[in-house]
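This part of the workshop introduces the protein records we will be handling. An example says more than a description, so a record of this kind follows:
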Amino acid sequence: MFRLEKVFQHDDSFFINYSIISKSLLIFLSVYIFSILESNSVFDLLNYDIYKNSKYYYLSIYFSLLYFVNSFVFKTNNKKYSEDHLYSFMNDILPLLITITICLLIFYIFKINFNIDINISYLLILILCNLYIHKKLMNCLYNNLIEQNIIQRNIMLVGSIECIKKILNEKKDNINIYKCCFVYIEYEKDLIKARQEIKIPIFTQNNDVRSILEYHALGQIWILEDKREKENKEKVNYYIKYVLKFSVDILILNLELKSKLNTKFLINKKYEYSNYEISKFYGVNLFIKILLDKIFSIFFLLLLSPIFILSMLFIYLEDGFPLFFTQDRTGWDGRRFKIFKLRSLKKEKFDKTIQVQAGDSRVLKIGRIIRRLSIDELPQFFNVLIGDMSIVGPRPHMVEHDIYYSSLFKSFLKRHKTSPGLTGWAQVNGLRGATPTPNLMKERMDHDLWYTNNWSIWLDLFIIIKTFYIIFRRPGR
């Protein structure tokens, strides 16, 4: 999984920015092609000298760059992608007019020779036509991403039966998928009646919400607030308290019909919402993190492949097959995945559920070396490639440990607001290896929560560099 659904999880900012970048490139290509075809045939399109010697050479550079900058400067605050062509045209026309004006000023001030003739009009028409085609293609891409369930948001509705029915009966955005709902119901007969009225799975305070989040792969929880209901404040506070311990983004919807239509905080083009607790991992920054993960994982797999192969050979010579082992771990939003490791324990004494302690008699001779240098973790670069893990993030624990410690610490599951990592903030601060006591686990949890609340690309790069220092200067597990 590429985690694209998380890039788009919070809003459409990434898609809108991608659209602006692609439009700027399209404008450059439009001018480039026009500069060739003005006096030549299509067979000369790859002739760079014709383009460089044409009068459009500087125009193509200035025009595309200025359009790119102006599009970002004058883009609206609306973070929802609009498929409307007229809306898109109005957003394009202002950057275009400003770009044309600035280009003319640059040519005049720097006395760049440029003759304005009828062909310039043809060029502008070509650009407008290409922008129209681009909008068509972007709409197709956006709808395809929705149909492929890449950017859909799986949502749990939380609130009273009346509020949930109101939302379900509204016309909704295709991107929002209501997977299930949570209501507070005391009596079984009321639950049976609710299930007859609501056609999505209903869960109550008697269910394990952690399992629900994992099974339905939920990305957001919407707490429905209607101040016209009696005891509304107490209900909302109860719902917040109940779901706050989980890693999923939490939004509070105001179901009163007094919304400001010009606000960017609207759901279903009708209801205002507020972000109660939102993960920092989304949008452009997350896309950069994912891209760096892929690049680093491929680089390290190629660089360390001799060590990887040699370690597998020694494991085989000492204790035969298998060379690897897999184990269920908890990932983003509590979704389970199989983690890969080189086997470092004797196979006759192998037990996945027991953490390795210092001086553990189960460890192979070669296992002590590969564990000390973290070579046994190298197969997890494959987990990074397929999207289950990241280079940097909270270390994934066994599912049994997550269940146990989440009952001890209220905020434990908030560690899952991002992909688990090969290394993390806790590991570079002395909390690497086994966590045999609850106090050690709490200390690790606090470091992981600090990371999720303060994450940046620069913090990831710092952690990667510090990890190498720790491995080679202070090894040991």
User: Anything to note?
Assistant: Residues 153-278 form a domain with the Rossmann fold fold (CATH 3.40.50). The chain has three domains: 4-147, 153-278, 284-473. The chain has a mean pLDDT of 84.
